[in-house]
Amino acid sequence: VAKMRNLVLVAVILQLALIEGKTENYEFGDIISFERSCPCTDMTYKHFAIYVGDTKLDGKKAGQDIFQRSVDLLITDLLHYIRKLYCIFEKLEDEHKSRSKINIERKDNYFDSVLKPGTKEEIIKRIKEKKGKCGVYNPINNNCEHVATYIRYGERFSLQNGTSFEKKFQEIDKARAAKKNMKAKLLEIKTEMECLICRHKKG
């Protein structure tokens, strides 16, 4: 029994070390992505947040170390849903408690090679600008990835790289670029409903 307890204790310590180690690798302003699975399908998506660490910011409480757009969706039917939306400070450790079958967390500053990240002062200014004022949530045009990339780079992007929605977002962009407005709109509606169905449980 004592041996088993020791093994369990070692496992817990290792797990805590892994989580702690992850956090120590982040710097202020880093984008963190969480690849997750949808609750009722095999589709995957990414949630995004900005790491702020222990930097003192207006409205941030002790222990809160990320800034993100949080969305709770209540679907009444396929055409009607209620959006609760806010850009707030939260705890990274709470994102480790996702009920998703997969929850792959990583630093995801994917535009650093082509865009210059904002300075700490610029990032703080953008956080103040967005806190509580993210605008109306839309999974295609105004989602958590748009917020995270704007805060880090000053420009809004949503690519959903490596997820089930990557190609869908690319199709919409191509239709927009070709000025096929009706096709783009239909693709937006179809993809939006898939996103909403995917996210209808808080994940």
TrEMBL record:
Residues 37-160 form the LRAT domain. GO terms for biological process: N-acylphosphatidylethanolamine metabolic process. Belongs to the H-rev107 family. Pfam families: LRAT. This is LRAT domain-containing protein. Residues 1-21 form the signal peptide. The keyword Hydrolase applies. Residues 165-192 form a coiled coil. GO terms for cellular component: cytoplasm. PROSITE patterns: LRAT. Keywords: Coiled coil, Hydrolase, Lipid metabolism, Signal, Transferase. One of its GO terms (molecular function) is phospholipase A1 activity. InterPro entries: H-rev107_PLA/AT (IPR051496), LRAT_dom (IPR007053).
